């Protein structure tokens, strides 16, 4: 009955608020109700994110003066690298076997979903990830913003000399769907989307902790690694986290790097080499320019600027909350290959390319962690 009442309330909300904001989150805690509410927001409006780029967003946040000031006062990103020796030494420790093994293991948790009514593998994947992080002896916490979710966003924190924070993130859920003919859950390993990105940044974190200054809190800034739940619930895991950072905790986030799909290089012709896709919409142009510098300096892979053309990943959540974000994906081509399907297994992935992404993450964090960002 509560579900029916909540759905009815959402339907009424769409009619009443079609040209304005949808109402606040309904009081009921069921996942089905939450999904209906989320779709209310998605259908009712086409809002504009704070930097003026229009798009279809699953929710619109009301941003306070803190977020507005963050948009107006750009961070001063380095114009040239200053930590070449440190980054290159650390990058030699990136282990392709670790990435491959972890992608395989995470993708064995098929249907890594936040909805407990469909699967238990979402929370099992979270527990496995937290166990892996405990081996690195890094402080972790889970985001319990929505108690109905059993898979939650995981945050690993390396304290620095200040609370200003550098963030690297990737979602670790895989899309849940159903076969309409049998109404059975479809097996969704999500190896490329996005065990590849999630485990790429895990390996980068392991390598970064080998640096004594970073590991002992002597970097200029705090470093956070995020593994987002509910990317396939319209970025709700990252939405809730960055919304809280902006409106409740008033966090000072200097940069957010998103890694979503890092392993598939596509069907390349004989004279074509793998390349990164550097997303230009829903991102911060100055941070994107800095990321391009890191790619040129610390990887052997070229990058091409591309439009994602939609609200395509979790970097948008940071942008909506007023934080500068950048997104680097596996290819300039937006592949639908195997995404959300049973065939998204580890077989077609390129571990060398994932190592290149890990080098990018290491360079990104080290250069920013010891820079003067203004």
List the topology elements:
Elements: H1 2-16, H2 31-44, H3 65-72, H4 84-91, H5 96-107, H6 121-135, E1 139-142, E2 154-158, E3 165-171, E4 178-179, E5 184-185, H7 191-208, H8 212-215, E6 222-228, H9 236-247, E7 253-259, E8 276-279, H10 285-298, E9 303-306, H11 315-320, E10 325-329, H12 351-369
Helix pairs in contact: 1-2, 4-12, 5-7, 5-12, 7-12, 10-12
Description:
- By secondary structure, the chain is α/β, with parallel strands linked by helices.
- The chain is built from twelve helices and ten strands.
- The strands form two sheets. The protein has an eight-stranded mixed beta sheet with strand order 1-2-6-3-7-10-8-9. Strands 4-5 form a two-stranded antiparallel sheet.
- α4 packs antiparallel against α12 and α7 packs across α12.
- The longest helix has 19 residues.
- The N and C termini lie far apart (54 Å).
- The relative contact order is 0.17.
- The N terminus is likely disordered.
């Amino acid at each position: 009955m509560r579900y029916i009442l909540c759905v009815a309330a959402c339907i009424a909300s769409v009619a009443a608020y079609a040209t304005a904001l949808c109402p606040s989150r309904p009081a009921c805690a069921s996942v089905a109700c939450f999904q209906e509410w989320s779709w209310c927001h998605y259908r009712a409006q086409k809002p504009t994110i704070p930097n003026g780029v229009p798009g279809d967003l699953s929710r619109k946040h009301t941003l306070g003066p803190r977020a507005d000031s963050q948009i107006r006062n750009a961070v001063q990103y380095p114009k040239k690298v200053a930590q070449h020796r440190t980054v290159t030494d650390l990058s030699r420790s990136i282990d392709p076997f670790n990435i491959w093994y972890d992608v395989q293991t995470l993708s064995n948790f098929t249907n890594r979903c936040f909805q407990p009514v469909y699967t238990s593998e979402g929370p099992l994947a979270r527990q496995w990830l937290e166990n892996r992080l405990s081996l690195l002896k890094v402080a972790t916490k889970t985001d319990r913003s929505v108690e109905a979710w059993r898979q939650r966003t995981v945050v690993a924190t390396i304290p620095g000399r200040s609370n200003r924070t550098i963030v690297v993130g990737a979602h670790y859920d895989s899309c849940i769907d159903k076969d309409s003919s049998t109404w059975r859950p479809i097996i969704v390993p999500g190896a490329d989307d996005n065990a590849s990105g999630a485990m790429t940044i895990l390996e980068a974190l392991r390598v970064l902790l080998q640096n004594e200054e970073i590991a002992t809190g002597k970097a200029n800034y705090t470093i956070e690694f995020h593994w987002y739940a509910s990317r396939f619930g319209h970025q709700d895991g990252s939405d809730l986290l960055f919304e809280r950072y902006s409106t409740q905790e008033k966090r000072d986030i200097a940069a957010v790097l998103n890694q979503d799909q890092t392993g598939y290089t596509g069907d390349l012709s004989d004279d074509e080499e793998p390349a990164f896709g550097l997303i230009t919409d829903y991102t911060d142009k100055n941070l994107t320019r800095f990321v391009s510098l890191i790619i040129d300096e610390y990887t052997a892979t070229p990058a091409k600027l591309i439009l994602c053309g939609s609200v395509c990943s979790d970097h948008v959540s940071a942008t909506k909350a007023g934080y500068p974000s950048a997104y680097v994906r596996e290819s300039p081509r937006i592949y639908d290959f195997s995404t959300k399907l049973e065939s998204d297994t580890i077989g077609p992935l390129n571990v060398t390319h994932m190592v290149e992404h890990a080098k990018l993450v290491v360079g990104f964090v080290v250069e920013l962690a010891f820079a003067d960002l203004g």
